[in-house]
Write a structure and sequence with these properties.
By secondary structure, this protein is mostly helical. It has one domain. The protein has four helices and no strands.
Length: 69
């Protein structure tokens, strides 16, 4: 088993460890609420970036969130 196979088999665990370490360091450095805000901004950025990669119309997404039903 080589390094690439190990990473492929455990990519979720590796991503979780990196995310946990990053969030922990942010909390230590900035405090809980500021770290939570940073994590929220990263999540929103990831969501928008994912939609751009999928070639979804961003205008429709924003209008969907702004619409009052």
């Amino acid at each position: 088993m080589d390094f690439k196979e190990i990473i492929f088999l455990h990519k979720g665990k590796i991503a979780g460890v990196i995310l946990g370490l990053t969030l922990g360091l942010l909390i230590i450095r900035y405090g809980f609420w500021k770290a939570l805000f940073i994590a929220l901004c990263v999540g929103i950025g990831y969501y928008i970036g994912k939609r751009v990669d999928e070639q979804v119309n961003l205008k429709e997404i924003f209008l969907k969130f702004l619409r009052k039903d």
